[in-house]
Design a protein that fits this description.
Strand order of the largest sheet: 4-10-9-8-7-5-6
Structural class: alpha/beta
Bound molecules: pyridoxal-5'-phosphate
Strand content: 5-15%
Oligomer: single chain
CATH class of the largest domain: Alpha Beta
Number of domains: 2
CATH architecture of the largest domain: 3-Layer(aba) Sandwich
Order of helices and strands: HHEEEHHEHEHEHEHEHEEHHEEHHEEH
CATH topology of the largest domain: Aspartate Aminotransferase, domain 2
Helix content: 25-40%
Distance between the termini: 26 Å
């Protein structure tokens, strides 16, 4: 019988009452079929067919402490007993904000939301308010949430993407407002000369530059040396707001996010995922002079913002991440480094074209001969993505779950035994994926 029989049965049932049987389009495409899970603890995930997986999807990033971490469970359970939502303030929101202000370079004031998507919207509105300008510079292959003004040129088909030096702003879905799409000026990432030229031509119309500080959503591409500092300089010279979207990198690359790790300070930054132990919480943070506008004339609202459970989870997660001067990051670095090195060694041993790039806490695996992927177009043209999808299914069959786009997340719950088991599965799955002819 099919190994994922029960998942397929449940998907058919789900499709009767849920569009496509899922609740995020990201999950529609999961090969071999969207799976149904029963529970997760530590680094392990269990599905409805009785399989156990070592998990490198980690809920798309948030579960940096591992699933069902005792400190999160305890904090949420205790807080829940005293009420969930007050339509008013409670002390835990101050606790979480104080963590952010202490740890994040640009964070002088904070506001909380439920999702990274919302936090980005708050940042954009703020940038427009303080500059009185409309246009936003963004980069091909970066993801900043699913709303109309940001689902632009995230994965544009190259026949519609325009020339590399002046890409078209390509809508990411049907049903999107053309006016919202037109608010973006799109550039390839890691090319400072093009940013300079765009600002020289249209600087007085540009409210903000928004960028992932590491291009995690496509290739986990690090910034070229001096690139982020260059964006900082250009924004300063033209009075534009630099927004760093740290929804993935925040509390994953380290206690001080990418800003701390890479030595650049944004005006405004957005956080989500790893800051909340798996509960929905996100933040927009930034310089006091800008953020203060939320207390004056810039609207930012939400029924569930800073709800008790999210704040309890965040306070606990940040306390755990900070413990012993960030000891968990040293564990994650060691495990991630072992895994990256191990995958590279297996590929070299078998003479296979496998690229592993990024950071131990979040890296990307691609099937390509290229020595590095430096922007979206190199990723889109240079990688054998169909074979990689086949590899992810071969891994699943061997008890390892990874995201089919190529990104791998590490948690503090991954042990050396998990890494060894994973590398054994990787070797077999690589041989299987490369045994078949190119798809
Ligand atoms: C860099 C970045 N920004 C924003 C978002 C949107 O966050 P959310 O899915 O919580 O709305 C994501 C989600 O993956 C992201 O990776």
């Amino acid at each position: 019988m099919d190994q994922w029989h029960r998942s397929r049965e449940l998907l058919a049932l789900a499709r009767q009452s849920l569009a496509g049987g899922v609740n995020s389009n990201v999950r529609l495409a999961s090969p071999p079929t969207p799976l149904f899970f029963t529970r997760a603890a530590g680094a392990l995930l269990h599905d409805v067919d009785g399989h156990t997986y070592i998990d490198y999807a980690l809920g798309q990033g948030p579960m940096i402490l591992g699933h069902s971490h005792p400190a999160i469970l305890e904090a949420v359970t205790a807080a829940m007993a005293d009420g969930q939502l007050f339509a008013g303030q409670h002390e835990l929101e101050i606790t979480v904000a104080q963590h952010l202000v202490r740890l994040v370079p640009c964070a002088e004031l904070c506001r909380f939301n439920l999702s990274g998507t919302e936090a980005v919207q708050a940042a954009l509105r703020l940038a427009r308010a303080v500059t009185g300008r409309t246009l936003i510079v963004r980069f091909e292959g970066h993801y900043h949430g699913w709303l109309d003004n940001m689902l632009v040129s995230v994965a544009p088909p190259l026949d519609r993407a325009g020339p590399r030096s002046a890409p078209h702003a390509v809508a990411g879905t049907v049903g999107q407002s053309p006016a919202a799409v037109a608010e973006s000026l799109v550039l390839p990432w890691n090319d400072l000369a093009l940013v300079e030229a765009l600002f020289a031509a249209r600087g007085d119309e540009i409210a903000a530059v928004i960028s992932e500080p590491v291009m995690c959503n496509t290739g986990v591409i690090p910034p070229a040396p001096g690139y982020l500092a260059g964006l900082r300089r250009i924004c300063d010279a033209h009075g534009a707001v630099l927004i760093l979207d740290e929804v993935i990198t925040g509390f994953r690359l380290g206690l001080h996010g990418a800003q701390g790790t890479l030595g650049v300070t944004a005006d405004v930054a957005t956080f989500g995922k790893a800051m909340a132990g798996g509960l929905p919480n996100a933040a927009v943070v930034g310089r006091r002079a800008l953020m203060q506008r939320f207390a004056q004339d810039v609207n930012h609202s939400g029924t569930f913002n800073a709800n008790v459970l999210a704040m309890a989870a965040s306070a606990a997660a940040l306390r755990e991440l900070e413990r012993d001067d960030g000891a968990v990051y040293r564990v994650i670095d060691a495990r991630g480094t072992a895994l990256m090195t191990g995958i590279r060694a297996l590929a070299a041993h078998h003479g296979l074209p496998v690229l592993v790039q990024g950071f131990p806490a979040v890296f990307h695996v691609a099937f390509t001969d290229a020595p590095a992927i430096r922007d979206y177009r190199e990723y889109a043209t240079g990688c054998d993505r169909e074979r990689y999808r086949r590899f992810t299914v071969a891994l699943l069959r061997r008890g390892v779950r990874v995201i089919e786009r190529g990104i791998w997340y590490l948690s503090a719950a991954h042990s050396t035994a998990h890494i060894d088991q994973t590398l054994a599965a990787v070797e077999a799955a690589l041989l299987e994926a490369f045994a078949a002819p190119s798809p």
